[in-house]
Structure formats: C-alpha cells, structure tokens
Amino acid sequence: MKSICALILFAAAAFAQKEPAPLKPGLYAIFDTAKGQIVAILYEKYTPASVKNFVGLAQGTKAWRDPQTGAMVRRPMFNNITFHRVLHGQMIQSGDPTGTSAHNCGVSVPDEPLIGLQFDRVGRLAVANSGAPNSGACQFFITDDLVPAWNQQYTIFGQVVRGQEVVHAISTAPIKGDKPINPVKLISVIIERISAAPPEKSKK
Q1: N or C: which end of the chain has fewer CB within 10 A?
Q2: What is the pLDDT of residues 39-60, one digit of tens each?
Q3: What's this model's pTM, rounded to 2 decimal places?
C-alpha cells in the first residue's frame, strides 16, 4: 500500500514539474513551428520601434514587399516561412519569405542597442541586420548560446520564456554552411498580451 501511495505522489510531483509557470503580464510573441512552440516576451518599453515593427509585420498591419509581385501588401508576413539560416548551436534566423536572407522587404527600423540588454543568456530575440547602421528590417534571430561578441551590434527586443528546447533543436539540426538541409517551418507568429489580474475588492 505504501509503495502505491509513493508511486502516486511521485507521478503527481513529476506532472507538477512539467506544468509551466504562468506568464507574467506583458506583450508576447508565440512562434508556432514544425518542431514545437516558442514563446518570447517583447521588450516594448525598452525597444519600442523594433517591437512595433515586428508586431505590425506579424499581424499584417504594416505593409511589406511581396517577393512575387513587388507590391507592398498588408498580411501576416511570418506565416508559412522557414528558419532559413542557422549558426550551429548559436542562433536561428527567420523573417525572409524567399528563404535566401536577401529579400528586400521594403521596411526599415532604427537600431535600439541598450547597454542593459546584452547577449549574456540564451533565448535572446533580436533584429537581424546587414552590419550597416539602421539596416534592420523584417528578419530576426533567436540565440541558443551566449554570444558577447554581438553586444551592441544588434537590437535585442525580446527574450524566450518557453520553448528554448525548440530553439536548440532547430539550431543543432544538420546544415550546409549556414543553410539548414531541411529548413524548419515557421507556421505562424501570434501576438498576445497578458494583462495583470484586476485587484481583488476588499471585503467589508
């Protein structure tokens, strides 16, 4: 009987450990990928231009250039594209519907580097750029390692809070150069705001 009770308690404890902690109030990006879900909080207070640009493209409220027609369109940009560039064990990159890293999406966003936001932890969500000032546009990357050499080179506008194991799985898959042999699909990016619970009314 004791062994059965112990087994039940062990199973309950294991289940509790798997249950993720509730998300804190804030603005989140939910990346639905073929490997699983990645959730990142967006730093709208610290990097407002980068967050506004990313959210507008994700939701389809900001115009971007369609690679097929060349016309500026308003539709969710990050649906059904791929993580087209990978640095093994370091980062995964997406945001280019052509999968070439070369698409000019007709958008630009100013650099917002902050001393307090550095590549000192995994799961940093940042704006990809060409190396020139203010050259960020539609592409973004998520880190899977500490990369201090990138500090002040890219705008960090978010942090993964769930699904870092998915980032790791994508970043360690087979590649040729920096191109995945079987690129992982980014199915969609959903933007969701988690609000603080209203204060409880005091009982009289």
Answers
A1: C
A2: 999 999 999 999 999 999 999 9
A3: 0.88
